[in-house]
Amino acid sequence: MSGTSGGFDQQVERRMALAQEWDELVRQARRIDGFEDFLKAPSLESLLPAARNGPVVLVNVSRWRCDAVIVTADGVDVVPLPDLVVGDVRRRAEAYLAVLQSVERTVRELRLARRALDDGFSLEANQRYNAASRAAHQARGEMESGLAGVAAWLWDCVAEPVLNALGIQGAPPPGGRYPRLWWCPTGLLNLLPLHAAGHHGVPGDGDAPRTVIDRVTSSYAPTLRALLEASKPDQAPALGDRRMLVVALAETPGRPPLPAVNAERNLIAGLFADRHTLLAGQDATWQSVRTALTHHAWVHFSCHGGQDLSDPSRGGVQLSDRTLTIEDVSASSYRGEFAFLSACKTATGGLRLSDEVITLAAALHYTGYRHVIGTLWSVYDRSAAAVAATVYTELICGGQFSPDGSAHALHEAARRLRDTEPGRPSAWMPFVHLGP
């Protein structure tokens, strides 16, 4: 027994010595300039500047209660959300994902049936194609009605109470600038389009449209600290890095062609003439893109993207030889200013770790890109090209590219698409902005 006791005492002494050594190392670190708050929880006062350009709305979802925590430069307010119930959030998120996945599944079957019919006409192949066409048409209709339904529910339960609390009860005057607002959702709300909340196509009350997009310009913030970091002036890239990297793959092995990629590539090549680097087709390899990212302040991906909802770190953009994953991007750091991810599901989170915003868009934002435009789900090829055209046209003035207007430019592009195709919310809802 005495031997056992002696061994235990030695372990206790060893642990105490290590704890004291740890405390001393932390004290030393905190004496270094810039590390005064090392391993400390940030103070509220240090985070409030993140909201100096507009309120940040943290939407808390729990089984006990749900609230919107509104952070402004002056302080914090809490808005109860009694109509938001955690069980409803789960059911809505599951239904939302189900209709999106149904469309992908039926479109994939339609593509295979079309290929079989092209290989040689037969009664069986024709019947398969007709059945796949009907299924895809039905799935698209269910997706559009499902998106409209979730947008209306988000308005009733979250957006309207928040905007009312902020006193934003109508559209800005004609020609006026839309106020900014940042959403910071938690849990499964990370999967849903808060920026698109509203009763679209339903008349509002005079100048009070019942839609977020007609009242504010929305952005997303993974965390207050990430938004604050991106807002710092010293995050700007060096002048020598102010070039656009264009990653364009109209054809990817094993995936359907993307005809609009060429239009995006030509648009950017024309706008950025001698200020762009093109990696297209077979040249857009995993290694070449990773290397080029470190030398360009701006990047535009026009290619296929994907996400694994059960393991989000495996999601990313598909290059000519392999996928550039979220894990790959997170392993590096950049001083980038702008990233446009004209690819599917680049801002889609995961199911198992829904409180952790694990997306390619968030990864680029965390690793140094100030402004990132991504997508919540698969997007139409033509819609992506239309959004890109509007965004770049809005951001270039007098030959100068100004990414700080990214949120407003995307907002304008989304409103134009919404007004052009009022019956297809899937055309404009997927596009989101992260950054200051």
Summarize the structure.
By secondary structure, the protein is an alpha/beta fold. It has helices spanning 2-30, 44-47, 86-119, 123-166, 224-231, 260-272, 286-293, 326-330, 360-366, 381-395, 406-420; strands at residues 56-60, 67-72, 75-80, 180-185, 217-220, 244-248, 276-280, 298-302, 305-306, 316-318, 323-325, 338-342, 371-375, 396-397, 400-401, 431-434.
- Main-sheet strand order equals 7-6-8-12-13-16
Radius of gyration: 24 Å
Order of helices and strands: HHEEEHHEEHEHEHEEEEHEHEHEEHE
Beta-strand percentage range: 15-25%
General description of the model:
The chain has 436 residues and is of the alpha/beta class. The chain has helices spanning 2-30, 44-47, 86-119, 123-166, 224-231, 260-272, 286-293, 326-330, 360-366, 381-395, 406-420; strands at 56-60, 67-72, 75-80, 180-185, 217-220, 244-248, 276-280, 298-302, 305-306, 316-318, 323-325, 338-342, 371-375, 396-397, 400-401, 431-434. The protein has a 6-stranded mixed beta sheet, sandwiched between helices. Strands 3-2-1-4-5 form a 5-stranded mixed beta sheet. The chain has a 3-stranded antiparallel beta sheet with strand order 9-10-11. Strand 1 (56-60) and strand 2 (67-72) form a beta hairpin. The radius of gyration is 24 Å and the shape is globular. It starts with a helix and ends with a strand.
